[in-house]
Amino acid sequence: MKISASLFLGLMIICLAFGKTHAQRSRIAKPNAPKVYQPLRLATSPALQTLLDAAVAETLGKYAAKKVSADNIAATLIDLRDPKNVKAASFRGDAAIYSASVVKLFYLAAAHQWLEDGKIKSSPELERGLKDMIVDSSNDATHYVLDVLTDAPNGGELPPKDLETFAYKRNAVNRYFKSLGYDKINVNQKTYCEDLYGRERQFWNAGKNRNMLTTGATARLLAQIAVGKAVSIQRSAQMMELLQRDFSGTSDDKDDQAHGFTAIALNNLKLTGAKLWSKAGWTSKTRHDVAYLETPGGLKFVLVIFTENFANERDIIPNIAEKVLKEMGNIK
Q1: Which domains, from first to last, does the chain contain?
Q2: Phi, psi for 274 (deg, rounded to 5)
Q3: Is 330 helix (H, G, I), strand (E, B) or coil?
Q4: What is the pLDDT of residue 111?
Q5: Are the CB atoms for 294 and 272 separated by under 8 Å?
Q6: Which residues contact 192 (CB under 8 A, 6 or more apart)?
Q7: Which of 327, 265, 263, 275 has the alpha carbon at shortest distance from 300?
Q8: How far apart are CA 317 and CA 314, in angstroms?
Q9: If you compute the radius of gyration of the chain from its CA atoms, what whole number of angstroms results?
Q10: Below-50 pLDDT ranges, the chain
Q11: 222-235 confidence digits (pLDDT tens)
């Protein structure tokens, strides 16, 4: 069968267009796990579990009059003193809870994986966005970073088929973490101070598609970063640099990440020589902190605490952290 020159040209244009679209889709689609991924092996520790349970129980007792219950708290503790024998404990560690700004830690790790794989390129603007997202917890910076990661920016409402394509792109970060074995999490939404509009509200699906994290998954990610096993040693170090907090002095901002969360426990115990790396998240209903601590006494641990429906009770997190700091040195 003979094909006219015009028909042949038309077919070539269609094939090239399909190839370009397929390539763009593939760039977002592939869950690029690290070439040599080394997941931390976490061993359940009865002694750590007893400590964490006691810390939560003691805090619940202090807030009994305010009706804070076990369902309002989740926590995970990972002991990193011995990298070859990492121990862990959780209190409701697999409960999926709205993440607030803690999700930004996952977007940071994904960005470094994308950079490592050459899916995106570093630039002064991207570096500024990552810094502001983590250091200042900027929501605007988070919007920019997630757009870079997924190529799925906001805009007007979409018909069902186009919304499906948008959703596929936006779930790129979910696919990445699923490839690493993370479950019971949802990391595909932007963080907002006010409200969602357009296709963002469609994709949010009346709250059914909210960002959700567990303290177990979050603690695992921060532990991977802390020991240099997230993406690469060099990229883990870059992430840690953004997460480091100077908790010396005081702050009038009760939501200051460096002073208003786990850092309160460090200051209460006068552990001025300690070091803190963290990412906090808070809304009118949630108050969370994700922290890695090193103390002069040799403690090295990740402590992740999520609270729900008692966001104004700012001492719940430091109460639990203080108990852990006091007693963990007795556990070998």
Answers
A1: 31-330 (3.40.710.10)
A2: -75, 165
A3: helix
A4: 98
A5: no
A6: 139
A7: 275
A8: 7
A9: 22
A10: 1-3, 7-29
A11: 999 999 999 999 99
pLDDT digits (tens, 9 = 90+) for 37-66: 888 999 999 999 999 999 999 999 999 999
Q: Are strands 73-79 and 244-245 parallel, antiparallel or unpaired?
A: unpaired
Distance separating alpha carbons of residues 321 and 89, to the nearest angstrom: 14
* 33-72 b/e (C-beta count within 10 Å ≥ 16 → b): bbeeeeebebeebeebbebbeebbeebbeebeeeebeeeb
Encode pLDDT of 287-302 as tens digits: 999 999 999 999 999 9
At 184 the three-state DSSP class reads coil
On whether the CB atoms of residues 244 and 208 are closer than 8 A, the answer is no
Phi-psi region of 83 (alpha: psi -120 to 50; beta: other; left: phi over 0): alpha
Complete DSSP assignment for 75-127: EEEEE-SSTTS-EEEEESTT--EE-GGGHHHHHHHHHHHHHHHTSS---HHHH
Cα–Cα distance, 165 to 274 (Å, whole number): 47
Distance between CA 220 and CA 222 in Å, rounded?
6
**Closest to 302 measured CA to CA, from 216, 232, 236:** 216
